[in-house]
Amino acid sequence: MVTLKEVAEICNVSAATVSNVINGKAKTSEATRKRILQVIEETGYKPNYMAKGLRTNRTKIISIVTEDIAQFTSPPIIESIMEQCEKHDYHVYVHNLRLYDRWQDTWYDQDKDYHSVLDPVLQDVLSARAEGVIYLAGHTRIINFYNDNFNLPTVMCYSLSNSPAIPSVVIEDEKSAYEVTSYLVKNGHKRIGFVGGRAENIHTAQRLLGYQRALFENGILFDPNLVYYGDWSRESGYEGAKTLLPQGVTAFFGISDKMTGGIYDYLIECGLQIGKEIAVVGFDNESISEHFYPPLTTTTLPLAEIGRISADLLIDMLENDQPEELPEEPKVVRIPCSMEIRKSVCRR
């Protein structure tokens, strides 16, 4: 690997001149500056931020700790965080815990297994002299994983913190579900089947609240028999539709597109025309949703916005003096979703 000194020798300038050009502080001719940048590109020279950090006491390194990069929500959030950090000259390291890949969805309450993966990563973060951490969860829940020896500024992304020192950025589940349900009501539907995830899941609970509020504000009595709790799988969506259709529902609200695929499967199996005889809406706007037939009306998650705001919060914590007194409650930023109207809803 080429060094800064070697770049300087090739350009026949001092190492200080090369360093100044890299940091935008050069007082040299335009020809020399271009020559240095050309040699840097040709040799593939990369500045040693760790060594620079030792000299300046700042590394400008931010670590993203993601529970599983394969989760469909993770890549857009990570890209947005990286883009925002780069605008402020921060360097981003990504640590993938691979929790879903290791244990699917069985690890949530397995504290020992969780920390067997997490703790070595946090040690790596400290060893790399990262200035701050963004913890990216696979789904929203309250997370408390730091020990007393880990005191880096931290932002919870797509998850909630129980520490007043750690702000959180999440989607606005309740309001978004309220808007979806209201849209069905405006189209004349009163018996709306709700196919949720696990009952204890925060996404399920918040989206159910939005569903209930929309019914209440439109004078429709909430019927618990129209609620089915699944496990986020396509198969559970199928079982939910099978359970709720005999209850006389005219519309289905599947709170994830994957489960909604199962709702489609059952309704098609029953010979019902979605978007003409029965209405269906989803949530998440996964790439597959526009390829359903008919294309699915669903809700787009503001993943890029979540990443951007998470990065801005952490950079603000690093760049500006923070209040000496912590707030009584953790700061939570909730980002609204947006509906994607397609062709799966009919008027009643």
Structural summary, described in words:
The structure is a single chain. This protein has 348 residues and is an alpha/beta fold. The chain folds into three domains: 4-47, lambda repressor-like DNA-binding domains (434 Repressor (Amino-terminal Domain), Orthogonal Bundle), CATH 1.10.260; 54-171 and 303-335, Response regulator (Rossmann fold, 3-Layer(aba) Sandwich), CATH 3.40.50.2300; 173-301, 3-Layer(aba) Sandwich (Rossmann fold), CATH 3.40.50.2300. The chain contains twelve helices and 14 strands. The chain has helices at 4-11, 15-22, 30-43, 49-56, 74-87, 99-103, 111-127, 173-186, 202-217, 234-244, 257-269, 303-319; strands at 61-66, 91-96, 132-136, 142-143, 154-157, 160-161, 168-171, 192-196, 227-229, 251-254, 279-281, 298-300, 332-335, 338-340. The protein has a six-stranded parallel sheet, sandwiched between helices. Strands 9-8-10-11 form a four-stranded parallel sheet, with helices on both faces. Helix 1 (4-11) crosses helix 3 (30-43), helix 5 packs parallel to helix 12 (303-319) and helix 8 (173-186) packs across helix 9 (202-217). The protein is elongated, with a radius of gyration of 25 Å. The chain starts with a helix and ends in an 8-residue tail after the last strand. The model has no long low-confidence stretch (mean pLDDT 89).
